[in-house]
Write a structure and sequence with these properties.
Layout (H helix, E strand, L loop, with lengths): L1 H25 L9 H29 L1 H5 L2 H26 L5 H20 L5
């Protein structure tokens, strides 16, 4: 279990780093000399690899004690927010990236959703 959790945390760190870099650029707060589509193409393999690692390791962690996770309110919040973060990324953020539009509100919502996933996951150990 500790090895699975370590892999899970590494994946989360890589995913959040990729999302932070992309969203800071969308917000107009860095890497302004990089076109958004080019930056997104550079970060895509890292983000997809990280999501794959997180989902696979998360499934293994879940299978260790499924009753615990199913009874956990933070786990339910985490799964809900994860779905919302992915949906927001695909449905909204990608349009701003493709159009090379700077929008701090969109970036802020995206980062809030992604970081809420991590915070809710951390709360699983402390909140019933």
């Amino acid at each position: 279990m500790p090895a699975g959790q370590a892999v899970h945390l590494i994946g989360i760190t890589l995913l959040l780093a990729a999302m932070l870099i992309l969203n800071l650029r969308v917000a107009g707060m860095g890497m302004m000399d990089w076109p958004l589509p080019r930056l997104e193409r550079q970060l895509r393999p890292w983000a997809l690899g990280a999501v794959t690692v997180v989902i696979l390791s998360g499934i293994l962690i879940f299978l260790g004690t499924p009753a615990k996770y199913l009874a956990s309110n933070p786990f339910r919040v985490k799964m809900t927010v994860l779905g919302l973060a992915i949906l927001f990324h695909v449905a909204v953020l990608r349009r701003f990236v493709t159009a090379e539009r700077v929008n701090a509100l969109v970036a802020g919502v995206s980062l809030t959703l992604w970081f809420l996933v991590g915070w809710a996951g951390r709360a699983i150990a402390f909140v019933p």
